[in-house]
């Protein structure tokens, strides 16, 4: 990090973002796996090593009571960022529930009250049903690519944010900040357009304008090749985050080279995207 000129970073589990789907249906195995992962993080690095390496813990809502216990344990250890998969939740009873289900209200309240950032990292979000429908291998393969599978029009991150916003989680918990990681930004415009249309048609179903909620509480980490000026027009430079996942295709060998793609942004906006936005999310919201 010193050699790369990085003051601090968020760190996410490469294979961990596919683990919940791989174990789905076996709640005990899922809880055990992530309990072990979180304990390893705590023992090996801690959750905020020297305020520079901000490690994202992982929580599943498959057992809400367990999730609350895990969160309490993490809060005692100064957790800053909790990662969750952008997906519905399969519970012990075999039922799927949205993120806005009342069952999860105590968890969101605690996240809000302690100012913990919610990260949603791309991975296996359990959308294999769509691949199955088209006869494509549904197994999550981190290092094997299938162009058609990539082009299928499913967007777990859009659906997850739609749940959190349309079902009132973010309106009720205004201290809860959400950052989208390694999902790019092409999904932003279609989602905002859907919000706009649905709000016009069903205004009574929303606590407030969903686009205003998105602008207030969601931060987006685009790929460097995305239309960054268009994203700024949609969410503002104060809600953009730079990132790199080298050696993946969307990563840069030298992370700070991202600044070269910010041509046309003023110095204050560059500072926000490259530094201050991330540092703010790495600290507890007050």
What is the total domain count? Answer: 1
Could you tell me the mean pLDDT?
92
Instruction: Tell me the overall shape.
Output: globular
The total of helices stands at 12
- Taking all Cα atoms into account, the compactness measure Rg is 18 Å
- What is the H level of CATH, i.e. the homologous superfamily? Metal-dependent hydrolases
State the CATH architecture: Alpha-Beta Barrel
- Largest sheet properties: 5 strands, parallel
Structural class given helices, strands, pairing? Answer: alpha/beta
Query: Could you name the ranges where pLDDT drops below 50 across 5 or more consecutive residues?
Result: none
Helix content: 40-55%
SSE pattern, N- to C-terminal? EHHEEEHEEEHEHHHHEHHEHH
Total beta-strand segments: 10
Distance between the termini: 28 Å
Strand order of the largest sheet: 4-5-8-9-10
Here the CATH topology equals: TIM Barrel
The CATH class is Alpha Beta
Portion of residues in beta strands equals 5-15%
């Amino acid at each position: 990090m010193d050699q790369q000129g990085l003051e601090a970073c968020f760190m996410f589990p490469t294979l961990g973002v596919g683990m919940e789907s791989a174990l789905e249906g076996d709640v005990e195995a899922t809880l055990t796996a992530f309990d072990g992962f979180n304990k390893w993080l705590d023992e090996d690095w801690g959750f905020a090593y020297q305020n520079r390496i901000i490690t994202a813990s992982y929580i599943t809502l498959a057992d809400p009571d367990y999730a609350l216990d895990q969160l309490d344990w993490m809060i005692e250890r100064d957790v800053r960022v909790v990662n969750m998969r952008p997906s519905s939740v399969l519970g012990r009873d075999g039922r799927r529930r949205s993120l806005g289900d009342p069952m999860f209200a105590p968890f969101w309240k605690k996240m809000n009250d302690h100012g913990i950032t919610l990260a949603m990292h791309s991975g296996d979000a359990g959308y294999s049903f769509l691949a199955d429908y088209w006869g494509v291998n549904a197994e999550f393969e981190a290092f094997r690519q299938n162009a058609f599978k990539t082009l299928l029009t499913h967007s777990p991150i859009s659906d997850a944010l739609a749940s959190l916003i349309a079902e009132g989680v973010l309106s009720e918990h205004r201290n809860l900040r959400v950052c989208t990681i390694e999902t790019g930004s092409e999904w932003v415009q279609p989602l905002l357009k859907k919000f706009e249309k649905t709000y016009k048609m069903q205004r009574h179903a929303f606590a407030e304008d969903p686009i205003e909620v998105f602008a207030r509480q969601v931060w987006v980490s685009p790929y460097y090749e995305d239309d960054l000026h268009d994203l700024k027009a949609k969410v503002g430079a104060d809600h953009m985050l730079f990132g790199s996942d080298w050696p993946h295709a969307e990563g840069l060998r030298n992370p700070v080279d991202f600044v070269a793609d910010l041509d046309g942004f003023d110095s204050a906006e560059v500072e926000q995207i490259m530094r201050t936005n991330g540092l703010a999310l790495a600290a507890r919201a007050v």
